[in-house]
Amino acid sequence: MARLAGRPAPQSQPGMLAESRQRPVLVDLGARAENEKAMVAKARAVARIAAEHAADVDAKARFPQEAFDALRAQRLLGIMIPAADGGEQASLATIAEIASVLAQGCSSTGMIYAMHQIKVSSLVVHCAADSWHRGFMARIAREQLLLASATTEGGGVGGDLRSSVCGVVRDGEDFTLEKEGCLISYGAQADAILITARRTPEAPPSDQVMAVVTRDQYRLERSAVWDTMGMRGTCSDNFTFAGRAPAQQIIPTPFAEIAAQSMLAHAHLLWAAVWYGIAAEAVARAESFVRGEARKRPGTTPPSALRLAELLARLQQFKALVVAGLDRYERARDDADELSSMGFVVAMNSIKIAASQSVGEIVSQAFLICGIQGYRNDSPSSLTRLMRDALSAPIMINNDRILGNTSNLLAVYKHDSSLSR
């Protein structure tokens, strides 16, 4: 059955949102559901390729090139782009499912895919009325461009994306920007970078803009190499960025609104989906181990089966957390006030905290089931890489920073204890 659905519009401009609803687009919901199922099926095929190379990606701390060649071939990088701009207009729930599926094959592949889609969301949500950025969205869909982010910076701001040292310098119709010490995941492989800076060099640190800069418009000088315990394939090196581009590539919406109305929810929900994928893979390996033990002793229940039952319950709780978060975002996505509300921010922050803690706890419980076979690197039940990747979750925007922000909100906000939101 077909129904009328409005095209996504900038959350920060209610007048434009109203205008978009006056120009409905006919959407066949049945066909859309089948199309999104097909996207997930394609992602499962890519995940198998990612899994084949995951150990090598981890060992060499290299970009998962084979997986992203496959993602491009399956045309899965531009699926969030609106249909009017050449994309598939996939729902956030479908994109989260794909990120989770990819993470089950290779954590770094899933995380890179999630980070790319977080950047795409800034364009989709805030740039529907801007001609240059709509043209760029069409390029993402057509050319399957990979987007990276440069929102952090050296110079004392640490990992605070809501504060910048560098500022945009206007030069006629162009702008120039230099940013030092920024950690840019897969920066050397990206086709474009969405970068933040002060509106002008004299603006306050929190008065920021975000701009799209394509690969031919900037140069990167690597200042530190990504050599870490886990998530090694994200290749999150530190760089000094220097770029020059037309001023029209600066997103008109202030970055404060972008961060609140699109980045917050998309980041926390898509990261949570990736961490769920890691947890689900750990549980799958524990299940396989228990079945193997049961086959060795027909007619008896392995002692580890009880732990597995508990672990499955914990994984179900994790799944419910992510699904509920996606549902809450879906209900709020056309309401700029709700997206910026304290209640919504607290909810999204809480999802990030809970998800980042759950993934490590679930993999640890899977270790208890698999025992030495989970501890070995050369075992089919090995959980070592999954554990190392899971340990990145609490420090990916440090949980203490998020808890600090949430505690400040709770000084003036009383949480809603109802089940309806």
From TrEMBL:
<dbReference type="InterPro" id="IPR046373">
    <property type="entry name" value="Acyl-CoA_Oxase/DH_mid-dom_sf"/>
</dbReference>
<dbReference type="Pfam" id="PF00441">
    <property type="entry name" value="Acyl-CoA_dh_1"/>
</dbReference>
<keyword id="KW-0274">FAD</keyword>
<feature type="domain" description="Acyl-CoA dehydrogenase/oxidase N-terminal">
    <location>
        <begin position="34"/>
        <end position="142"/>
    </location>
</feature>
<dbReference type="InterPro" id="IPR037069">
    <property type="entry name" value="AcylCoA_DH/ox_N_sf"/>
</dbReference>
<dbReference type="GO" id="GO:0050660">
    <property type="term" value="F:flavin adenine dinucleotide binding"/>
</dbReference>
<keyword id="KW-0285">Flavoprotein</keyword>
<dbReference type="InterPro" id="IPR009075">
    <property type="entry name" value="AcylCo_DH/oxidase_C"/>
</dbReference>
<comment type="similarity">
    <text>Belongs to the acyl-CoA dehydrogenase family.</text>
</comment>
<dbReference type="GO" id="GO:0003995">
    <property type="term" value="F:acyl-CoA dehydrogenase activity"/>
</dbReference>
<dbReference type="InterPro" id="IPR036250">
    <property type="entry name" value="AcylCo_DH-like_C"/>
</dbReference>
<dbReference type="Pfam" id="PF02771">
    <property type="entry name" value="Acyl-CoA_dh_N"/>
</dbReference>
<feature type="domain" description="Acyl-CoA dehydrogenase/oxidase C-terminal">
    <location>
        <begin position="260"/>
        <end position="396"/>
    </location>
</feature>
<dbReference type="InterPro" id="IPR009100">
    <property type="entry name" value="AcylCoA_DH/oxidase_NM_dom_sf"/>
</dbReference>
<feature type="region of interest" description="Disordered">
    <location>
        <begin position="1"/>
        <end position="20"/>
    </location>
</feature>
<protein>
    <submittedName>
        <fullName>Acyl-CoA dehydrogenase</fullName>
    </submittedName>
</protein>
<dbReference type="InterPro" id="IPR013786">
    <property type="entry name" value="AcylCoA_DH/ox_N"/>
</dbReference>
